[in-house]
Write a structure and sequence with these properties.
Blueprint lengths: L1 H6 L11 H9 L8 E4 L2 E2 L11 E2 L5 E4 L1 H12 L21 E4 L7 E4 L1
Antiparallel strand pairs: 1-4, 2-3, 5-6
Length: 115
């Protein structure tokens, strides 16, 4: 990034790319990679160029953390390797951690409640 800045290139953004992206794109939706599980809710898509009945359905793509994501979070936060089956690994948090009121400082008096 320093070389880009020094040369004056007008960089507005970039994408992180990994070798795993190539495997996912080559094999389609069947094999699952990564730390987030995506339920594609495969269904019919009349605009799809191929396999019109096996396309992710718009608005129904649910994402949830895999256990590996929770293990990585524990590693990054604690700085130590934990056994996924050991007593010190507590797994993923559930949605109850988001239950509270949120205030927006930019809009005094405006708040949201997540329950």
């Amino acid at each position: 990034m320093q070389a880009v800045n020094e040369s004056g290139v007008p960089l507005r953004g970039y994408f992180a790319w990994s070798l795993m992206d190539n495997f996912e794109w080559a094999d389609g939706y069947r094999p699952r990679f990564g730390t987030t599980y995506v339920d594609f809710a495969l269904g019919s898509d009349w605009q799809a160029p191929h396999s019109k009945n096996l396309q992710p359905t718009a608005g129904k793509q649910w994402r949830r953390r895999r256990d590996s994501s929770c293990w990585l979070e524990a590693l990054w936060r604690g700085g130590a390797l934990l056994s996924p089956s050991g007593p010190d690994f507590r797994g993923c948090v559930n949605s109850s951690v988001f239950v509270r009121s949120f205030a927006n400082d930019a809009h005094p008096g405006c708040s949201a409640q997540i329950s």
